[in-house]
Amino acid sequence: MIRKSRGAARVLKGSYLALVLAFLYLPILVMFALSFNESVSRASWTGFTLDWYVQLFHDQNIINALKVTLEVAVIATAASVVIGTLGAIGMYCMKQGWFNLMAVLSNIPMTMPDMVTGVSLMLMFVFVKVPLGKATMIMAHIAFDIPYVLLSVLPRLQMMNPNIYEAALDLGCKPRQALTKAIVPEIAPGIVTGGLLAFTMSLDDFVISYFTSNTDQNLAMIVYSAARLGVKPTMYALSALMFVCILALLLIVNRRSGLEIL
Amino acid sequence: MKRQWYAAPYALWMLLFTLVPLLFVAYYAFTDGSGGFSTDNILRIFQPGYLPVLLDSLRLSLYCTLICLLIGYPTAYFLASRDFSENKMLVVLILLPMWMNFLLRTYAMMTILENNGLINMLLEKLGLDKVQFIGTEGAVLLGMVYNFLPFMVLPVYTALKKLDARVIEAAEDLGANPLRVITRVIVPQSIPGVISGVTMVFMPAVTTFAITRLLSNGMIYLMGDMIEEFFITVNNRNAGSALSLVMLALVLISTLLLRLVNPDTREGRA
């Protein structure tokens, strides 16, 4: 009897979770389906086509936006991996008080609304008369990417055996060698995870890019300006591709990290 | 190791690109177009035409937070329960959208709600009249809930996951019925999670923009949209900064208030 009611409860809970999953994923799946629909109107399914995907790659605006997106993401990731990893090593060597101060610093971009971050950066760039474009977008992306690298590397350092560095020195390493040959391999998985996260966040960003760049648009900005004019099937195709890429990256990050993030 | 200075580029970058820009927001908020000191822009929000937008933003954000709590709490509770706690993939799937571009997800929602969208198509097939969803407050609210729900589930799930199963068994052994176990043991223990969930939903909800634009064709206009307009279309940086400052203040005040009622931080444990 008890077992039976537990089974029923399980079914009930399962159906509730299934409903939530449907709520979260149904719109995305519908968009996927429509990106393969021959008809321009969404009202009916007239047949399978890849035309919208083909058109996507003939649209110069989209190709340009793709280049901007990738360029910004690659440069911002590279810079934030270097700055973030060095930052984590520096913080690891700090006294408690300074460490806490720096930890607060890394939390600011994560707790501030994206919109305020974007607007504030825009004001600064305008004030110092830097034209809003790819360069400003990259600087902004580095700023919000660094904390992801930092927070992926720092736990690795803290989990590491603190004697490794001393041991490397005792075995004849110079301090620099001890760092590159003993410490860096230890924290490498954290660096890779942080880099992947930074890359994903950079690909994914809309709000901050929107406010910090005028002349160069990334893919998300293209979707926004197109969506304001109504829906187009090519935008379904573009969104579907972006979803797949971001989903894949996130799943890889999730698999790699024993972090609390997911 | 004496390598503290390795953190210098990081500290410098964060100062220059997160803290200093905020000073510019404050500067523009308290000056007029010619650069003289002025409080007009800040006081403007109490004027008709602005105050209703602010109140609408607050009202919709509250609704959104409440709905997310109502849907999200059971979700987190079931996910953390014995029946599903082994199923890691399920947890990942429910939390994953949190990291995916809100714009793309809103765009997906738009395809469902449109006049030629899935729902209206189904209504038509059933011989019912089409419903105009886009442009209603309900559509915007649905879009917000759709986007921010995972932000509620994550912290509540984490809090419930930490709950010691033995505490629940102890309550059961001491004769508490299932309802009492929930109201007297589980819910009180999950309050810190609920509070951080409320913070995590309320903050992006108050700062919402673009979601409204896409799901209401501009019929519904919230604080975020107003800030966007001041900066992008009207190019009035002073008014935009003043509003951004008000928005930031709202977020900070609500975060602090929530922190005050949080038993975890109140006792200095977190």
Salient structural properties:
heterodimer; A: 262 residues; mainly alpha; MetI-like fold; 11 helices; globular; B: 270 residues; 0% strand
3D structure, described in words:
The complex is a heterodimer of chains A (262) and B (270). With 262 residues, chain A is mostly helical. In chain A, 79% of the residues lie in helices and 0% in strands. Chain A has eleven helices and no strands. Chain A starts with a helix and ends in a 6-residue tail after the last helix. The model of chain A has no long low-confidence stretch (mean pLDDT 88). Chain B is mainly alpha-helical. Chain B contains 13 helices and no strands. At the A-B interface, helix 1, helix 3, helix 4, helix 5 and helix 6 of A face helix 1, helix 3, helix 4, helix 5 and helix 7 of B.
Set down the secondary structure blueprint.
The complex is a heterodimer of chains A (262) and B (270).
Chain A: H1 2-35, H2 51-56, H3 60-92, H4 96-111, H5 114-127, H6 134-159, H7 163-170, H8 175-204, H9 207-212, H10 219-228, H11 233-256
Chain B: H1 8-29, H2 40-43, H3 51-80, H4 88-95, H5 102-113, H6 118-125, H7 137-162, H8 165-173, H9 178-206, H10 211-216, H11 223-233, H12 237-261, H13 263-266
Helix pairs in contact in B: 1-12, 3-7, 3-9, 5-7, 7-9, 8-9, 9-12, 11-12
Cα gyration radius of chain A (Å): 23 Å
Q: Helix and strand succession of chain B?
A: HHHHHHHHHHHHH
User: What's the total number of strands of chain B?
Assistant: 0
| Beta-strand content of chain B | under 5%
User: Judging by the overall fold, what is the CATH architecture of chain A?
Assistant: Orthogonal Bundle
Q: Count of helical segments of chain B?
A: 13
Q: What name is given to the CATH topology of chain A?
A: MetI-like fold
